[in-house]
Write a structure and sequence with these properties.
Layout: H1 3-27, H2 29-41, H3 46-93, H4 101-124, H5 130-149, H6 156-162
């Protein structure tokens, strides 16, 4: 396992442990009494620690929602507008496709997903506190970085298979699979 992955798992595990502890403290009075006793023992101001822990939890929730929103809408929008539509346009210009429908399909799907993502972020932005909004931005940015590092470039053949009804058979030789005796 890579060193960066170990650090990421450690941070996620620490955040989950903190969230679980805070949830238990908020829902169970005995746990809350123990946590208050621990906070009294520490040489820190209890109010500051609780406010910072709350802000960290809200930021974590916001970053999770932002990452999820990116993976649901933004990644597909950028994939359609940045990879598939230009590839379809390039193939149509080279007369490999007989119709502009794949270009229009991927452009419309990319714009639709981008608009849905913008509406979703506009709806979610400012829903809670500034820590939540900052978490949304950080989560979307983290999702974009994740998508950029894990992007899978499909082959030309995959793209042609997805749009096989629009292939110009005279200009593109498509191999077909035959049964072996």
């Amino acid at each position: 396992m890579k060193y960066g992955t170990r650090i990421a798992y450690g941070v996620i595990g620490g955040a989950a442990a903190l969230a679980l502890t805070l949830w238990l403290g908020a829902s169970n009075s005995e746990v809350a009494i123990v946590l208050i006793g621990i906070l009294d023992w520490l040489p820190l101001d209890r109010t500051v620690v609780l406010n910072n822990a709350e802000a960290a939890g809200v930021f974590a929730i916001g970053s999770g929602v932002g990452m999820l929103a990116w993976l649901v809408t933004g990644r597909e929008a950028f994939r359609c507008l940045g990879q598939r539509a230009p590839r379809a346009w390039h193939l149509w210009r080279r007369d490999a496709l007989t119709s502009l429908i794949p270009v229009l399909k991927y452009t419309a799907l990319g714009l639709l997903m981008g608009g849905l993502g913008a509406y979703l972020m506009q709806y979610l932005w400012g829903l809670w506190t500034t820590a939540y909004s900052a978490g949304l931005a950080a989560g979307a940015f983290g999702g974009a970085i994740y998508s950029a590092t894990r992007s899978r470039r499909g082959s030309q053949m995959d793209f042609l298979e997805a749009n096989q009804r629009y292939i110009n058979d005279e200009n593109v030789s498509v191999f077909t699979e035959t049964e072996k005796p």
